[in-house]
Amino acid sequence: MRCRWVRRLARRVAGCGVAPRWNGACWELVPVVAGFTPRESWGQRLSHVLDPEEAARLVAIRPTSVSEATWVLIRDVVFEALMRVEPKSAGSARKCVRALMPFAAWAFEQGHGGELEAFYTPELVETWREVMASKAARGDGPISKNSVVDYTARLRQMGPKVTPEANWPPRVGKIPGGAKRHLREPYSDSEVHQWVEMVRTAPSGDRRRIAETALALGFGAGLAPGEYPLIRAGMVRCSENGVWLDVPGASARCVPLAQPWDYLLRRMRTQHNSDEVLFPTGRGKSAVSERFSRLQVRVDGAFMSAQRMRTTWLVHRLRAGVDARVLMRWAGLRTVSSMVDLLQYLPEVTPEDSLPAMRSAVVVTASW
Predict the structure, then answer these.
(1) How much of the chain is in helix, strand and coil states, percent to nearest 5?
(2) Are 65 and 98 in contact (CB under 8 A)?
(3) pLDDT tens per residue, the chain (368 residues)?
(4) Angle at Cα 204 formed by Cα 271 and Cα 265, nearest 5°?
């Protein structure tokens, strides 16, 4: 009866800046910070918006873009921002934390204080982006060029929820009648290296072999999730021009394998019969995702994602200079809307770097 009364009281005072707490003799109303009592740990607070196991895993996360000492200083403000965002899934929460870490560390070094309202503004996000992009171009930054683009987009997306009083520009909505988006956020360069190391150090056996096949099909050929179970060893062809993969199905095509992933499929071809499936799965729409989860290979607590590996492959090919129209044919894409969505993940080019291309002559009409 008492618990039911306390829950009813908590609902009635919600949003008033206080919450009920038992002090040993009676119930009292205590101040609330971000909707939670001061005695609650971050694991308890995050469990209000995430699964308790995922919340505990997130609290124990090991920072990669900042030092352990810096993480201790910015940890509270990062999790406070995460609570205001209220992520819908554990994967979304991890992405938010990865973007917040280097930004909060930079703000702390610049002396902007430990309050979100003091530094989480559109102006400082833009300043941080310029500083990080400049450092990444020189090769002495804590994150790569691609990560700068990813994290900046994430910070701008979270901004109106974290500091609604700041002058955030309105987000551009979907184009009426536009095509449905099928692309997911790509992996950053550091995340790709983490996946390689995780699979490379995994115990040998069928689990490691299938994980290597998944990396080769995702990062090397950019396959869609439904195409993984269709690939047989005989579809891998070796020629003077490299290793090619014959992809069957509705978007049948022949894809050149990117290095160094071509070596893995070349080796797989010699170890299997021509009609043997390289990535065996069960049936159903989520069969590939379930197979990834059974591999028990994780980075930052998340399993492999075929959609994110496909988007990473597309972004890497564009960064390498592949023409977008040719890439669409090799990816099995029929509309340009997905390619437009990839522009935000490409490294930014300064006007100075583009000046030679802007001034070059494409068609020489006369000599002066």
Answers:
(1) 55, 10, 40
(2) yes
(3) 444 444 455 445 444 544 445 445 555 555 444 444 444 577 778 777 778 888 888 888 877 788 888 888 888 888 888 888 888 888 888 888 889 999 998 988 888 766 888 889 999 998 998 888 888 888 888 888 888 888 888 898 898 889 988 888 765 443 333 334 456 788 888 888 888 888 887 777 777 888 888 888 999 999 988 888 888 888 998 888 888 999 988 888 999 998 888 888 888 888 888 888 888 777 666 778 778 777 777 777 677 888 889 999 999 999 888 888 899 889 888 877 778 878 888 887 777 877 887 777 666 655 55
(4) 35
Q: Cα–Cα distances in Å, from 208 out to 163, 203, 280, 296?
A: 44, 7, 13, 10
For residue 341, the surrounding DSSP H or E stretch is: helix 337-341
Q: Which residues contact 209 (CB under 8 A, 6 or more apart)?
A: 268
Helices (H) and strands (E) in the chain — how many of each? Answer: 16, 5
Mention every residue, 6+ apart, whose C-beta is less than 8 A from residue 340.
Answer: none
**Rg of the chain in Å (alpha carbons):** 25
Instruction: Give dist(CA 301, CA 86) in Å, integer.
Output: 19
CA distances from 154 to 97, 143, 199, 272, 315 (A): 10, 15, 28, 42, 17
Residue type, 157: Q
Six token digits for residue 70? 């810096």
Query: First vs last Cα of the chain: how many Å apart?
Result: 94
Phi, psi (5° rounding) for residue 279?
-130, 80
